[in-house]
Design goal:
The protein is α/β, with parallel strands linked by helices. The protein contains four helices and six strands; from the N terminus they run βαβαβαβαββ. Helix 2 links the parallel strand 2 and strand 3.
Length: 217
């Protein structure tokens, strides 16, 4: 990019990456709990993302503070000789079911004492409001875009925040069916900007697809 190109014409790409598969033998919704690392498969997925982005003009790599996001970011940053920066705005959504099993047919969702948490699916009542998630994710993206103006930047986050951000940018309602999220493990949602204007959203799965009903394995 010519250094004399006006700022409002600079093309910048923000690659918003979902972390890889997590080691979660008890099948809980781990949310923001510490200590949840990538599985062996997740490590391989992170390397696949790093390989897919190796030839790109990446000048910054930023991640959620959670271990699984940091571990996904590390090989991406290493491929470009960069350090991983941290932005708390990229963190997983808060959730009242954190630490519990929530799979269909067993776990917390089958117990009446938890049903009051499900009273409002639109905000939602069981966790961080969708609009709040969208706003903090957009803040992280805008900060990253400013830092990497005219180049590319990687932001590593989590399924619900990434999907909520995408729906917000596409002007879609934020409440949704989680089974229909297009945000596989180690997927890349690339936001293409000309200056301050979002001109395209490109989705890719360098590590292959995964079932959206499995929230991180």
């Amino acid at each position: 990019m010519d250094e004399n190109t006006p700022a409002n014409k600079l093309r910048t790409i923000v690659h918003v990456v979902r972390h890889g598969e997590v080691h979660n033998p008890n099948g809980v919704l781990y949310g923001r709990l510490p200590g949840y690392r990538l599985s062996v498969t997740g490590q391989s997925q992170a390397r696949a993302v790093a390989s897919a982005l190796a030839d790109h003009d990446v000048t910054h790599v930023i991640a959620s503070p959670l271990q699984r996001a940091q571990e996904t970011a590390e090989p991406i940053a290493a491929a470009h000789g960069l350090e991983v920066a941290t932005d708390d705005n990229l963190i997983e959504a808060a959730n009242a079911f954190e630490g519990l099993r929530v799979s269909v047919g067993d776990g917390a969702l089958g117990k009446p004492r938890h049903w009051w948490k499900l009273r409002d699916p639109f905000t939602p009542s069981w966790g961080e409001p969708y609009l709040q998630i969208a706003h903090r994710m957009l803040a992280a993206v805008n900060k990253a875009r400013a830092e990497a103006a005219g180049h590319e930047v990687v932001c590593v986050s989590h399924q619900l925040p990434v999907w909520t951000l995408r729906r917000f940018l596409q002007g879609e309602r934020l409440w949704h069916d989680p089974r229909r999220r297009q945000c596989s493990l180690a997927s890349i949602t690339s936001l293409v900007y000309d200056g301050d204007t979002l001109v395209d959203i490109v989705y890719s799965e360098p590590a292959g697809g995964s079932d959206p009903r499995v929230t991180g394995a």
